[in-house]
Design goal:
single chain; alpha/beta; six-stranded mixed beta sheet; 6 strands
Length: about 210
């Protein structure tokens, strides 16, 4: 009996630990081998979240700007320059975009993009699945008394969503990519927490990859 209780408690702890794990993680990153850290001083950064959802874009660019400001950069947000309805369908040409970025004195461009989204439906069982449980014994009254509270607790279907994001840093003058990072987000709880965690995650990897001081 004690062994069964111990196994059940252990299984419960494993489920809780898994559910409390990080919802976002870095899957890969890349640094341009030709880029020499510190060879050039950057002062002003243009930040843009290339996503369709205006609310997500707003949150992402706010957090991107806050992270850059905290490091001493001047910041221009794309949503303030291009408006809230900017999408890939009505985006200006690359030349027009770069011209606008440079005219505002930005020497860095930092973008965050949703590159893919996956949805997977799964069945979540009710409070218990069947197995001969020792506490009610092997007679019908015990069986019925134990299981009757669960008879009206059916399982249900839920959809898990995974978002694959990419962050990229460019030199505005040379147009060359300095750094790139890919992340994976599993079932974000809210737009606010998703954006905040994503930018913190990317910022930490940027500092690590480029050897920047925190």
């Amino acid at each position: 009996m004690k062994r069964i209780q111990h196994l059940l408690a252990l299984a419960l702890c494993m489920v809780i630990a898994a559910s409390c794990g990080p919802s976002q993680k870095v899957t890969s990153s890349w640094v341009n081998p030709d880029h020499v850290v510190g060879a050039r001083k950057y002062h002003k950064i243009f930040v843009g979240a290339l996503v369709h959802n205006t609310s997500v874009r707003q949150h992402l660019e706010e957090d991107m700007a806050a992270a850059a400001l905290a490091k001493g950069y001047e910041v221009v947000r794309s949503i303030d320059v291009l408006g809230p309805t900017f999408t890939k369908e009505n985006a200006p040409s690359k030349e027009a975009m770069l011209g606008k970025v440079r005219s505002m004195g930005c020497d860095l461009i930092y973008t965050v993009t949703l590159v893919n989204k996956q949805s997977e439906q799964r069945y979540v069982p009710g409070r218990n699945t069947y197995a001969p449980y020792p506490y009610y014994g092997y007679r019908f009254p015990g069986y019925y008394n134990y299981w009757s509270p669960y008879m009206y607790d059916p399982g249900y279907y839920t959809t898990d969503k995974t978002y694959f994001m990419e962050g990229e840093l460019f030199d505005a003058d040379t147009e060359s990519m300095i750094w790139s990072v890919q992340t994976e987000a599993y079932n974000p709880s809210s737009i606010d927490s998703f954006a905040k965690q994503l930018i913190e995650l990317m910022q930490a990897r940027l500092e690590k990859d480029l050897g920047l001081k925190k």
